């Protein structure tokens, strides 16, 4: 980085991982500039502020960020409490972003639309590693500006690019035209989005934790707002895996949520449609007609897409990336988190070496580093950015010595339920090559997002 070392390091996204990256860079004496598309830090979490996290505070805080906050007299939350998304923002991300050290380096309303090397397109190899990056940013006033950077850390998450409703990875025919009838992936149906759901026919699509939560909240809404109709479409042949093991479930929180959902389906409050792979959406004047590949149709006023997320790779088109062809995570990380084979998402803690791309000094971290896998944990991301900051500072030893108190999985197997509930043990790992499924004596911390791309049951 010699020729460009006076340039800042661009961090894309001011979610928990982007802010943590900035805190670690500052500790290393490096200069971050953070570009955040939304109006405030934590803009993606703002969309699900009504949802409770499944991991307690102690796993949701980054060490370098805490050191900054502690110095400001910040009051730490109770480590064992499970915060809501809103509390994660109000009690942690907002105070962190307001610190002068971070706030002075944070640009909000600044959406990164492309990253490249100055004067070089992807095909040019000469002097590539020593040429500054150019980060093209669309600012809130509509102006587009190019910013040069010594390195780039992409922590932009996946929230803005949900998976389509269609079954083949493509939008269903008519899906884009029906956008007005499709809600955000985790609407607050009893709170701020209530008016859009009360006394309407609502179709929830998907078979993970988000679908379960939304369905249960809709059932609460239906009690207060008669005429609210709840339809639930899953692609698999049954919803058994969403229900979990009920009272006998080894993971009590999953059992409770699942049992409640099962009762609501059995009571007819929720109308379940299995094997419903969506092919077409027809927008009509009064509603949308959702058609399955086998010809069945469901009429709805609003559709809730709980189908998971995928990374936005368009803005990285001019960079040389090494991504797993299936998961779209860095190549060596992909197989460790592939939802086809892993019902849980935790992997051995890993850092810069595993996250590296052929494009030197460029890293994808946080939720986006997991590509299409739904099982990312904040604690994993905090360790990623500690290691990446060390690598960018030239401290390869610290970058390679991965240390983490990670919520490690005790149920990491190829045949466990589709839910990604995460038991924890405290482990201190020292190698990126450690195997999966190593944790003894799991302790439940709760639910992950567990979207599994709309897969469910015996699909
Ligand atoms: C409902 C839900 C519950 C979860 N619960 C937990 C939990 O209990 N425990 C846990 O460990 N993990 C949990 N996760 C998973 C994960 O930790 C969170 O998704 C977390 O927010 C990921 O942090 P991030 O910083 O990587 O991404 P995000 O929080 O998504 O932040 C990315 C930021 O980048 C911004 N951005 C996006 N595109 C651009 C762009 N082009 N230019 C500039 N800025 C951009 C966004 O506005 C956003 O502010 C949960 C996820 C969900 C969806």
Automatic annotation (TrEMBL):
It comes from the Bacteria. Keywords: Oxidoreductase. Gene3D superfamilies: FAD/NAD(P)-binding domain. InterPro entries: Auxin_biosynth/cation_transpt, FAD/NAD-bd_sf, FAD/NAD-binding_dom. Residues 135-324 form the FAD/NAD(P)-binding domain. The keyword Oxidoreductase applies. Pfam families: NAD_binding_8, Pyr_redox_2. PANTHER family: FLAVIN-BINDING MONOOXYGENASE-LIKE PROTEIN (AFU_ORTHOLOGUE AFUA_4G09220), FLAVIN-CONTAINING MONOOXYGENASE. This is Thioredoxin reductase. It comes from Arthrobacter bambusae.
């Amino acid at each position: 980085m010699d020729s460009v070392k006076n340039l800042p390091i661009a961090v894309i996204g001011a979610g928990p991982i982007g802010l943590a990256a900035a805190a670690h860079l500052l500790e290393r004496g490096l200069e971050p500039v953070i570009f955040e598309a939304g109006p405030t830090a934590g803009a993606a979490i703002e969309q699900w502020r009504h949802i409770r996290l499944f991991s307690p505070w102690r796993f949701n805080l980054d060490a370098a960020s805490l050191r900054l906050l502690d110095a400001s007299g910040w009051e730490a939350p109770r480590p064992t409490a499970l915060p809501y998304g809103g509390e994660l923002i109000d009690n942690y991300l907002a105070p962190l972003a307001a610190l002068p050290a971070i706030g002075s380096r944070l640009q909000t309303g600044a959406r990164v639309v492309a990253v490249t090397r100055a004067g070089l397109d992807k095909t040019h190899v000469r002097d590539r590693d020593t040429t500054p990056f150019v980060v093209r940013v669309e600012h809130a006033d509509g102006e587009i500006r190019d910013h040069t950077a010594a390195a780039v850390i992409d922590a932009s998450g996946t929230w803005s690019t949900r998976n389509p409703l269609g079954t083949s990875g493509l939008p269903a025919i008519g899906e884009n035209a029906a956008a007005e009838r499709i809600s955000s992936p985790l609407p607050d149906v009893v709170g701020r989005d209530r008016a859009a759901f009360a006394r309407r026919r609502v179709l929830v699509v998907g078979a993970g934790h988000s679908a379960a939560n939304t369905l249960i909240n809709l059932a609460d809404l239906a009690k207060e707002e008669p005429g609210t109709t709840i339809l639930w479409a899953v692609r698999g042949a049954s919803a058994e895996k969403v229900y979990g093991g009920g009272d006998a479930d080894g993971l009590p929180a999953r059992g409770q949520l699942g049992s409640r959902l099962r009762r609501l389906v059995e009571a007819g409050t929720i109308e379940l449609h299995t094997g419903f792979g969506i092919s077409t959406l027809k927008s009509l004047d009064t509603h949308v007609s959702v058609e399955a590949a086998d010809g069945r149709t469901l009429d709805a006023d609003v559709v809730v897409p709980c189908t998971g997320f995928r990374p936005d790779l368009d803005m990285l088109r001019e960079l040389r990336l090494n991504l797993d062809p299936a998961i779209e995570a860095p190549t060596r990380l992909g197989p460790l988190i592939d939802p086809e084979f892993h019902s849980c998402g935790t992997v051995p803690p890993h850092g810069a070496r595993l996250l590296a791309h052929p494009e030197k000094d460029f890293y994808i971290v946080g939720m986006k580093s997991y590509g299409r896998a739904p099982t990312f944990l904040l604690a994993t991301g905090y360790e990623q950015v500690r290691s990446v900051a060390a690598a960018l500072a030239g401290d390869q030893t610290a970058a390679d010595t991965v240390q983490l108190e990670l919520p490690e999985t005790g149920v990491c197997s190829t045949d466990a339920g589709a839910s990604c509930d995460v038991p924890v043990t405290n482990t201190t790992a020292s190698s990126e090559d450690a195997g999966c499924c190593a944790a003894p004596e799991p302790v439940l911390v709760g639910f992950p997002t567990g979207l599994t791309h709309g897969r469910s049951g015996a699909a």
